[in-house]
Write a structure and sequence with these properties.
With about 130 residues, the protein is of the alpha/beta class. It is built from five helices and five strands. It has a three-stranded parallel β-sheet. A two-stranded antiparallel sheet has the order 4-5. The longest helix has 14 residues. The termini are close together.
C-alpha cells in the first residue's frame, strides 16, 4: 500500500522500544528503502509535546518524515494535526489502532508544525501493507 501511494520517507524517527523498532523493520521491508533512521528517546515519553519537539527539529531539506511511536500520543498528534476536524467524519474518526499510518500534507517549516496545520491524505493500517 505504501509503495502504491508513493510514500517514501527520507528520515524516520523511532522510539527505542523494541515493539516500535520491530514495527519500523517491518515497514522498511515493505518500503524497500533505506532512509536515515534516528532512535529518539523523546518518543518513548509518549507526550504530544515531545513528539512535536522531535518534528520541529527535522531539517527543512527533508520533504518526507515518518515518526514511529506509541498511543495515546501518536493518535493525539494525528488528530491534532488535521486542519479539518470539524468537517465531519475522517478516516481517523474510528480511532487510531496499533499499526496505523496517518499521512499528512503539511505546508511551511517543520519547526512550525502544530495543531491544525496539516491535511490528512491517507490512513494505512499495517495489516494492509503488502508487497504482493
Amino acid at each position: 500500500a505504501c509503495r502504491r501511494l508513493g510514500l517514501q520517507p527520507e528520515l524516520v524517527a523511532v522510539s527505542p522500544a523494541l515493539r516500535a523498532r520491530e514495527t519500523w523493520d517491518y515497514v522498511a521491508r515493505e518500503l524497500g528503502a533505506a532512509p536515515r533512521v534516528d532512535i529518539e528517546n523523546r518518543i518513548y515519553a509518549n507526550t504530544v509535546d515531545d513528539l512535536l519537539g522531535v518534528v520541529s527539529e527535522v531539517p527543512d531539506s527533508v520533504v518526507s518524515f515518518l515518526i514511529i511511536g506509541h498511543n495515546p500520543s501518536i493518535a493525539d498528534l494525528a488528530l491534532s494535526l488535521d486542519a479539518r476536524p470539524d468537517e465531519g467524519r475522517t478516516p481517523l474518526s474510528d480511532g487510531f489502532p496499533t499499526g496505523t499510518l496517518a499521512v499528512f500534507a503539511l505546508e511551511g517549516s517543520w519547526s512550525e508544525v502544530g495543531a491544525g496545520v496539516g491535511q490528512l491524505q491517507h490512513v494505512v493500517r499495517l495489516d494492509q501493507l503488502s508487497s504482493t
